[in-house]
Design brief:
The chain is α+β, with helices and mostly antiparallel strands. It contains 7 helices and 16 strands. The strands form 4 sheets. A 6-stranded mixed sheet has the order 4-5-3-2-16-15. It has a 6-stranded mixed sheet with strand order 6-7-8-9-14-10. A two-stranded antiparallel ribbon has the order 1-11.
Amino acid sequence: MGFLNKIVYWINIIVAFLLLISFVLPYVPPKSFPTLSLLSLIVSPLILINILFFVYYAIRLKRKLIISLIVLLIAHLHFNPFFEFSSEKNSADYNNTLHVLSYNVRLFNAYEKNPSKDVSIIISEILNIQQPDVICIQEYYNDNKMDFSRYPYSFIHFNDGKGIFGHAIFSKYPLLNKGAFDFKDSNNNTIYVDIVKGDDTLRIYNLHLQSLGITPGIISWQEGKKDKLIKRISRTFIIQQQQMEDILDHKNTSPNPVLLCGDFNNTPFSYVYRRLRGDMKDAFVECGNGIGTTYLFDSYPMRIDYILVSKELDVVKFETVKKSFSDHYPVSATVGWD
């Protein structure tokens, strides 16, 4: 029994140490240490395992609980709370509000062999319940039967030149400016619009960073394939860093408050997320609840879809919409300003 306890103790030491290393990840550019960046994908399970170790030793009244307790406290302060308990604010307190919904629609399931859900019905239900003023759609497919007629203003851009893989922004309010920039050697891109509401103008970016390119259910950790997978993900993080830098360069030219909406394909523990967030507000952190899962990878919950808003704006409400035909959940936020 003593030998087993030692094994448990050393496993505790290892996962606590890995979580400790993860604290530097938001500050380490993937271009400099690409392999280290992979650790950002497992920060959530590292936190969970350390919580389990803490509970295990607490029940047994062992002082060893201090190991996980210390790294968990640091992680809580460093990464923001793991679990949000927030409440929405009163929109009546603001002169103006704007409700934005962001959704990776996976090409409206156009290439699914046996689609099990009626996409158009679910889209209608989401829009009827949410009533967003603006919709940011990633992986927009031109040949679809969705009804966006209640949104008289729109901007749709395709990177592939075929009308298959693109992004779209639909708005109830006029668009003053609109544009797009495609990422080099990638089907991913970013589009933006300047939306006019009353006397005010807000810039909204709809972005989709490079995908990890991993299909759930078919990952093989056999020797050789594992090395290839690690190299591929590391290369993806390097590409994401360049895409992030392009977005920030463009964002810095905006004379108006900004919302960054979309699928970042990375976690809140990553360098890319920290740089994109900067001094902006994460709508989930401000007004979200729970762990904020927007994507399930083989039942593994991840938060990779975001709405970030300029510090001049207040987040009034945030919701992860638990209704979807895609592999992503929509996220929606209401922002307010005077």
